[in-house]
Amino acid sequence: MQVVAVDDRTLQVTLKAPNPEWPRYPGHPALAPRRADLPFGAVSNGPFVLAGSGAGGLRLERNPYYWNRSAVQLDAVTYHVEPDPYQALRLFQLGHLHLVLLPADLAAQVPGAQAMAQPATMGLVFNAGQPRLAHSGLRTAIALALDVQRLTAEAVGEAGLPALTLVPPSLGGGWPPAEAVSGGAPGEAGAHGLWSQGSLVGELLSGALPGAELQEARRLWGEARAELGLDRVTLTLLHAEEAGALAGAVKRSLEERLDGLTVELHTVPFAQRLERVRFGQFDLVLQGWVADHDDPMALLAPFTTAHPGNAARWVSADYDALVAAAGAAAGSGRAAVLRQAEQLLLSEAPVVPVYHPLRHWAVRPELEGMQVRPLGARFDLRQARLAVAPPG
């Protein structure tokens, strides 16, 4: 990509290759322009400007130079930093806060609390560069044996949405009616994305009866062990300390369902875990992917052969070709190619998606018109307003 400043108000962008999704990218903070001759940071223009900040929070005031300033109805917005979620909830219930972010367990206690899938996925990565795990049948057997519904319920609870696709439902399109709007009808859960959750396994198994996934897993597991000449298989699973519950649930699920499999859990600090993954010193690792822009490609491209983020060391010329084709396609054609790429990725199973993290929040009824999106300005206050209660 090449960027040229034509004049004080115009940037000319030249892309390496055609990208129909490009118009959605310039709003990302990483692309905010910065003049080398100005002493302050990046130039931006939003509905509010910073009026003050401190350890306890910050205050924003309406920006008189915003291009659509007549549509902004709030004069000021104050953000409070409250490390204690119980205290934050108390302040909300007392009416001192109009919006509060909550952990899942507290959100369950608040009538009308809302949730949205974050543009992220947590899952299991196989080291396909390791001789045993280079066998796609062995990987697929393990993938089919994992009950992501049960894993999520046991280890994550209301903080996660079970995932049967790598691309979360919060990427790739509008969450009807394009976003969640406080004071209006909420969007249909799971509607934000290219395809619906749960569709992939059903397609791979051609509408098979319940339990067929486990039967197929055991069949593939037996065939793979026979072809590899293995009576028993022991695999190490690297995980962070905070992912211990999920790692334990993965271990129990796999050892219960696949005879001859032992999963050894290794709690590894973040920096050391990154180093071991980088050099291929692992069998399995629990890992997360977070999209930095609203495009399924953000999660699919890292599994191409030459991508530095291909922790699985998986090589597929067919997958590479599909991702390359999607890069030059547009509209429904692009979505169809991306879908094919994800189906190939999950059928070959270098990665097993487990859950999509959920963000929970609560809004007081007098705050209307706030839009909620999975990326960018997650709580968009451009059209927000405080309703005036009628006289009693």
TrEMBL record:
One BP annotation, GO: peptide transport
Occurrences of domain Solute-binding protein family (ranges): 3-306
Matching SUPFAM superfamilies: Periplasmic binding protein-like II
Single annotated GO MF: peptide transmembrane transporter activity
PANTHER family in alphabetical order: ABC TRANSPORTER SUBSTRATE-BINDING PROTEIN, PERIPLASMIC BINDING COMPONENT OF ABC TRANSPORTER
Name of the protein in question: Solute-binding protein family 5 domain-containing protein
